[in-house]
Amino acid sequence: MMLIVLICCQISLLNTFQLFSTSRIPSIVRYVAPDAHMELEASDEFRVRLAVVEALRGVLIEDSDVVTKGWVGGVSATRKEILVELDISGIGESEANEIAKSCDEAASATRDALVEEDILPQGCQVMIEAQVSKIQEVAKEIEDETRPISLRGVKRVVAVASCKGGVGKSTVSTHLAFALRELGLSVGICDIDVYGPSLPTLVGVVDDPTVRTAEEDPELLEPFEKAGVKLMSFGFLNPQAAAMMRGSRVSGVIDQLARRVAWRHLDILIVDTPPGTGDAQLTLCQALPIDAAIVVTTPSRLAFADVVKGIDLFDTVNVPVVAIVENMAAVAMPFELATQRAREWLENFISEQPTQDQIHSLATELARPFRIFGHGFKRQIRDMWGIETFIDLDLEPDIARRSDAGEILFLSNDDTLSESELRAKDTFLSLGNQLLRELDSASAQRPELHLDGADLILSHRDETLRFPPQDLRKKCRCAACIQDPPTNIPPTLVPIAVSRTGNYALSIVWSDGHQSLLPFKALIPAYAERAADRLISG
To answer: Which of 152, 330, 373, 458 could form a disulfide with 299 if both were Cys (CB 3.0 to 4.6 A apart)?
Structure first.
């Protein structure tokens, strides 16, 4: 349960961020630079932050304190307010309220002392933002009463997003679901794309096209099925009508499709999201407890710009992006056609009859994959967010024809598949296996992080590392710093907020307004080893 604790003179717990139902302070509470007249001098701001952090060390928890335990996510200060971010989601609500109250008292006492020293003005308030959860694992309990009744038997929900249309998201979603079925999992697909539902076309004829309600609950729709995979799409419910709806109506339909289907017991529910990064996507993230997201794109620069927006959107609602699929990565002429073209060309342009070796050699060159969009932006994404799972899918005419005909690769005999279709099938199986590994690793121990004065403290397993601000800023891997690495870093520059970004990176907001993205593997050697292990095993 996400609660925001706003404290001026007393603690008030408000259910403000109902959009966020996950287990850490969301990106939306990151520091936003105030108006210029509200800013403190850098030296004063630094002094205030240090004083507050030292005061918070006096909030004792058994044999430790809230700072040492890593429960202080960030401290920032302006002339208007002191903001303390707490991440106390792993304890009971009553104890969390007591800790928040103690932190308010400590910060308020520090504020009063700094007002007397004329460092802070009269009227500067203390504000504490805290995330409180009654039970740390409650969000992952399958029978948790806070989950929609239709999803209480669903173990994992994975969103497949594209951030822009026309990149093959629905084809990837559908074949991924059937690949997971091939791996022995019980799977469902929920096609949320109201304006352009593709699932009915991609799967063809379903086992029973009748629209029915569930026997156990007449308010739930019975999902359709194809070869054991459960399906739901607006295209099944209203196949002929055009979806001419405005935003509020669309949000309602999305909510119905997401929460009013009798999915029963599934290992994984694949959600084919609408393209874009707007209201429909936020509605979806609010309606469904999404565990992870896969972003489908092309290697083009234009698509990369949308990938950045998409990853940022999912990070805002605390959904880790665990894989990037670059569709249409390359295109190649089928070898049979290349052989025919090679023979025709050689017969027309050389005087003697071409040999089989000549034909084969030219055909091999003609059939070589050509990357029409270039080599993509894997390195930039890896450097910025630490995402290591990348899948390349070539543009295959055979798969396009099968998709238009409603034929699934995994429901066809291998003897009837072309060489390119067999490669694509193996690629989808690889994506399925890597997704399962990412979902398993999501529950692994994550580094604990907090600010100790101006230093970042990272604790992982038995290792604790300290990073002074100068060293930390030089490691920034955001797009601007990759292009123009920082050199002259002022000594007054300090981090003012730090938070996790997805599974493998952290975000730092600096006192000059800059925001850094740093993958954990750039800071912790053990994470680099884990990344290498995933690449080798993948």
So the answer is: 373
